[in-house]
Design brief:
The complex is a heterodimer of chains A (338) and B (732). Helices cover 28% and strands 21% of the residues of chain A. Chain A is of the alpha+beta class and 338 residues long. Among the domains of chain A are: 5-50, Uridine Diphospho-n-acetylenolpyruvylglucosamine Reductase, domain 2 (2-Layer Sandwich); 225-326, Enolase-like, domain 1 (2-Layer Sandwich), CATH 3.30.390. The termini of chain A are far apart. Chain B contains 17 helices and 31 strands. The longest helix of chain B is centred in the C-terminal third of the chain and has 25 residues, at 503-527. Chain B is globular and about 85 Å long. Classes of the chains: A alpha+beta (338), B alpha+beta (732).
Chain lengths: 338, 732
Amino acid sequence: MINFQYARATDIADAVRQIAGEPTAKFIAGGTNLIDLMKENIERPSRLIDISRLPLKQIEETGDGGLRIGALVPNSDLAYHALIERRYPLLASAILAGASAQLRNMASTGGNLLQRTRCYYFYDTATPCNKRAPGSGCAARYGLNRMHAILGSSEACIATHPSDMCVALAALEANVHVAGPGGERVIAFADFHRLPGDTPERDTTLRADEIIIAVELPARGFATHYSYLKIRDRLSYAFALVAVAAALELERDTIKEARLALGGVAHKPWRDVAVEKAMRGEPANRASFARAADAILRDARGFEHNAFKIELARRAIVRALTQAAAGTPQSQSVKKIR
Amino acid sequence: MVYIGTPTSRVDGPAKVTGAAKYAGDAAASGLAYGAVVTSAIPKGRIATIDTGAALRVAGVLDVLTHENRPRMARRAAAYKDDVGPEQGSPFRPLYDDTIMFSGQPIALVLAEEWEIARFAASLVRVEYEAEPFATDLRVERERAVAVDEPPKPRGNADKAYAAAAIRHEAEYFIPIEHHNPMELYASTALWEDGKLTIYDKTQGVLNVHNYLCSVFDMKPDKLRVLSPFMGGGFGSGLRPQYEAPLAVLAARALERSVRLVLTRQQMYALCYRPATIERLALGAAPGGTLDSVSHEAIAVTSQYEDYFRNDTGWSGLLYKSPNAKYVHRLARVDLPTPSDMRAPGATTGVYGLECAMDELAVALKIDPIALRLRCYSDRDQHDDIPYTSKQLRKCYRQGAAAFGWDRRNPKPRSMRDGSELVGWGMATGVWEALQMDTALRIVLTANGHAEVSCAFSDIGTGTYTIVAQVAADLLGLPLEAVTVRLGDSTLPQAPVEGGSWTAASVSHAIAKTADEIRKELWRLAKAMPNSPLGACRLEDIALADGRIIDKTDSGRGVAMTDAMRHGRRDRLEHETTNSFAEDDKHARNTHSAIFAEVKVDEELGVIRVTRVVNAVAAGRILNTKTARSQIMGGVVGGIGMALHEETLIDHTLGRMMNANIAEYHVPVNADVHDIEVIFVDEPDELVNPLGIKGVGEIGIVGTAAAIANAVYHATGKRVRDLPITLDKLLG
C-alpha cells in the first residue's frame, strides 16, 4: 500500500471538484474492494476522497413509479428495504447472493458498480495483466481461467465483472445518475460497464472526474416472476461461475415480457435485448427457455478451464427461467436449488 | 474421576473471546520496530540485483535486510535442521544467498518505525532476476519421480496375486496441493533486552523453534526464550519453524531493538502445504469379497531441496486383511517450498485413495461397502502380525451405520432422490496412529489449595489447556477452578511439538506421574500430623479427592491438603518429572473411525450439498467429550473442504500459486456444513497406556473425503477421482 492523502468531501460539488483537480485520487465509500486492492499495490491512489458522509443514503420513490437509490445506500439496507423486497425482489435476491453479511453492511450501492474483477492475475503484481498494467499481456488467457469470460472477451482481457447486484440492475434496466464538472447525466445500465476491447484497464464509462450519485429503477419490477440463480464453487461466499437474473411477465402461459441477464460470464453483466424480444409471445416452457439460452450463448467461447461454463450457463438459464415462470424464485438462504 | 470424560468448556474460552489471550502478533511491547517481507516473483533462478535505495529513503525506514547485508547467520545447512523436518535434504535458509528456490520466497526484510511504513517501503524494493527453467506440475514431473526407501515391508507377491485375482480394480486418485489456512497469521514478536531475546512466535513447538534459533544464530539457550501461549490454528503448518521467527531475530539483532513481523495471508501460502499426490491403488479380490492383493503407490511432490514424505501407502495393507501387499512411494521434485504435515499427513491422502478404491471394489463385487470391509476386517496389524492394543472398528461400523440409517440405502447409483436432487450415501473407514511422547511437566501445589501445572506443549486451539486442567484436577483431587495451566513457553518443562494427536496421551501421563509425586509428599505430611487419621495408612491406600488426602478404603478418613501443608510448614510442594512410555512392540496402537456421508446433488447443475455426516470414532478414553467432539467436527469440515473445495491453483507457466487468499482458496463456509454427528464408541484400552488415551486431533479428517466422494458416486453414478469434486466434473 502506498502512502496517500486523505480528505473528506463536504458535498457532491466538492467531491467533483476534488477529483477533477487530482486525477490520481479515488473516492472511497465502504472500501470493501478498494482497500484490498490498495494493500496489494494494484490501486495506488495519491489521495482518498471520503464520500461516505455525503447525503446519498436515501431510497425515494420517483414520480413515474420507480425508485431512486442513493449511491451510498449500503448493500444490506438496500436488500432488506421494504420497497425493494416488495417491488424489486430480484434485486434483493441478487444482493443477498453476493459476498457476506459483513461485506454487504459496508459496501455501498455505487461502490458495488465499481468493484473490480477477481481475476487471479489482476490481483498479483508479479504477473502480466493488461487490465492492471496495460500492454503487459493477459496471463489468464493461457493460464488459470476457470472464473473467466465466455462472452465478449478480447485478445487483451478475459476477465469477468464480479458483481451480483449489477446483474439484477442490468435485467431491471436501471439508470445510473452521475455528476461531473459539467453537471449531471444519466447512463443507461447497459452502457455503464464496458467490454474490454483493447482498453481493458477501463471497466466502465464513468469518467475519471465523475461520481455516481444514484441508481434509478424504472417502475417495472417483475415482482411476481423472477429468480436470481447463482452457481458457484461453494454454497456461499464465492464469486459466480454463472449467475442468472431472470424476470418474466406472463399472460397465462405466454411470455409478455422477458429479461435475462448473466453474471460471471463477461466483462459486464451480459444481456441481449434481441433475445428477450424474441421470447415475447413464446410459451413459458423449457423448450422456449432452452431456445433463449442457446440464443444468448450463441457467441460463447470457452478457454482451457472454463469451457464448461457454456453448458452450465445454458442449464442455469433454463432453470432460472423455469423458477421465475413457476413463481418459485431461488432462495438465497436455503441452498437447495429449486 | 470428576472431570475426566465429562464435556467441559474451554478453560481459556473467556480469555479468547475477551481478547485477553495474546497471540504472537499481539504481544505488547514498547519501542517496537516493524518488519515487512519482500518475496520473490519468480520460482527459480538468482537475484541479479536488488535495489533497496528507494525503500531506504522513505522516512521512518530503519533498514532493509537482504542476503547482501544481513547480519551473520549459520552457514551450514545442518544448523537449520529442526526436530520434525525431513531427514534428507538441506533446509531453507531465509535471506541466505541470491538463490531463488520458489516463488514467494522471502528475499528482503524492510524494517521501519511503523508497519504501514515498512509495507510501503517494501513495495519500493526493485529486484532483477536471472530466471532459470522450473517445474511445478506433478502430472508432468511424475515421470521423473524417484522412489523413497521407506515404505512398509511388502508381503507375499502382490503382482502375481493381482494378476490371478477374480475381481480386480485399479485406479489413480489425485489430491491437489492444499493449504492449512489457519485463521491466525504467522507472526513473531521479538523482544530485545540487553542482548537477550524473548520471542512470541506462532508455532506448535516452542522448543523446536528455540533450538532452531539457538543453532541458526549461535546463541546460548538461556539468551533466548520462545513463547506460544495461544495459537489461532496450526493444522501442522506450525510444526517446523517458519521463516518469520528467524527473520524477526535477525532484525532484532541487527537493530538491537524489539521487532514485530507479521506475514500477510498471501505470504503464508509460500510457507508450506499438503503435497499434491497421486494415489494409485490396485486391489485384487475373490468373488466372496476377500482381498488377495493390495498394491498402493503414491507419487507426491516435494521441493528441490528437501525430501518430504509421510506414510501414504502403508495404511492399505494395515487396515484390511490381504495375504499379498506391496507399496511404492515416489517423490517428484518441483520448484515449490517443501511440503509439510497437514492434519493426519499421509493418511488423509493415502486413505482417501484406498477408501475410494474399496468402494469401487464393492461395486464390482456387488456387495455392500460395509460388508466388504467386514469381510476384509483384520484384528491384527498386517505389517507385523501383532494384535492391537484395542480396535473397536466393528463398533464404529455398527453404531455409525445405525445412526445414519445405512440399512435404508438402495445400493443402485442414481436410485435415491429428493425432488430435483439425487441423493447419495457413501461411507469410508478412517485410521490413524495412537502416538505418545516423552514429556516433562511441573506441578506446584500451594498451601491455599491451588495448583499450577506447567509444560512446554502448545495449545494450538485443540483444547490442551482444558484437558490438562481436567486431568490435573482429578489426579490432584482439586476443583477445576483451583488449577492454573501454563503452556507454550520454552522455559517450561520439555515437551515435543504439538502434533500427531499425541498431546493428550503424552501430557496426561506426565500429569499422572508428577501428581503421584505430590500425592506421596502429601501422604508423608499427613502422616506426620499429630493424631493423624492417616497415621497407619500405606501409600497405596492414599488418594487425593475434594481437596483432601483420604484413605481409599474409608473415604471418611482423611485430612485437608491445606492442613497437612500448614502443619508441615510447607508453603508449596513442587515436583517436576519426565514421563516415558514403556516400550511395547508386541501391540499396534491405532485409532479408527467409520464415516457416513449423505450428499444431495442437483442433477441438472451438479451443485453438491453435504447434508449429513456421521463419524463414529474409536479412540480409547475420551478426556473431554466437548472439545473432542469439536476436534472430530473440525476434521469432518476439513474433509468436506478436501472433497469439494480445496485446491491451491498453480500457474505452471509462471510457477506461482495464484489463489493465495481465502476468498479464492475455498474452504467450507457455514452454508457448506450441515449436520455432523460424532459418536465416540466405547473402547477401553489398558494396553496403549495406563489411562487408555489415544488422541483425536487427526482421526476426524481421515476417510471423510472418501465417504463424500463415494456418496457423490452413489448419487450420480459418476466416479470423480480427482479432488476437489467441483460441479463441472459432474456436468455432461
